Model the fold of this input.
Amino acid sequence: MIKRIGILTSGGDSPGMNAAIRAVTRVGINSGLEVFGIYNGYKGMTEGYIEPLTRDSVSQISNRGGTILGSARLPEFKDVAVREKAIKQLKKRGIEAVVVIGGDGSYRGALSLTQMGINCIGLPGTIDNDITCTDYTIGFYTALQTIVEAVDKLRDTSNSHHRCSIIEVMGNRCGDLALYAGITCGADIVITKDTGFNEADVLDRLRELDTIRKKKHAIVIISEKITDVDEFAKKVSLNTGFSGRATVLGHIQRGGSPCPFDRLLASQMGEKAVDLLMQGIGGQCVCIRDNKIVSYPIEKALKMPSDSRKPLTNLFERLI
Ligand code: F6P
Done:
């Protein structure tokens, strides 16, 4: 039976990571384990920036955004020599297993460590909702709420000035933040990597909203990394009756107090991670599927093709 576990947060932070840290720490301690915080992700693991966590050190954090452990991206962790250095730091402290909270890059590190003898469990901490094996990632709904609040505000001002607001949201290569925001904000157009972006078609549609539907404003939500939204806004002003204005929501989407769903999800997933490690299981990631907390092999999770978003895309189309 293991005695000591570590926990780290890695990659882009997400609201709810602290609730997961608290859950792993408290469930771990209440199950007789010693729990260590590994600071700044795999970087801190390699450098030995590792400190014990207590019940008190994780008190009053589940309402806080960000991560008390800090996070980093460390591409060098794919080098076996770097991982060996990290494993030495863990062994020096008697840490036998680790909970890794992050996205797919963090999962790759967790899998490699497991293959080298340190059991790791991955928790999906990212606002992007881009880990296919789980219905939702920790932080997604809080980021969505931030977007919805911003779009509601933009709608007010757009409506007063006969404007088209083009709002760029995060998501890396995943369109979920844009699509869910499109439905919940009542946007006119959603553009993601799945919908594709045909500039001429979008301008046509905006002209139709202006001249035929007589709309006072238009809302376009677009995933990041698709087009230059400032340039596109200029084209909207030139080619439609709306004046175009672009807003890039950026890192605001990553911050803020996690919503109750993310706190609950993080707590349930943290509990599951500790239970798996105590059973001697590693190389798995925790998921929520059909409202049940389950686990899935990381190796398979990384290769899983992304789910079709057809039903939600169809719903969006039927709502406009
Ligand atoms: O993965 C989370 C995320 O916020 C993505 O949505 C975005 O593309 C990326 O991280 C931004 O990364 P950084 O914080 O390193 O600029």
Remarks:
- The two ends are 56 Å apart (CA to CA).
- Residues 237 and 243 are 4 Å apart (CA to CA).
- Residues 12, 103, 126-128, 170-172, 224, 254 surround 6-O-phosphono-beta-D-fructofuranose (CB under 6 Å).
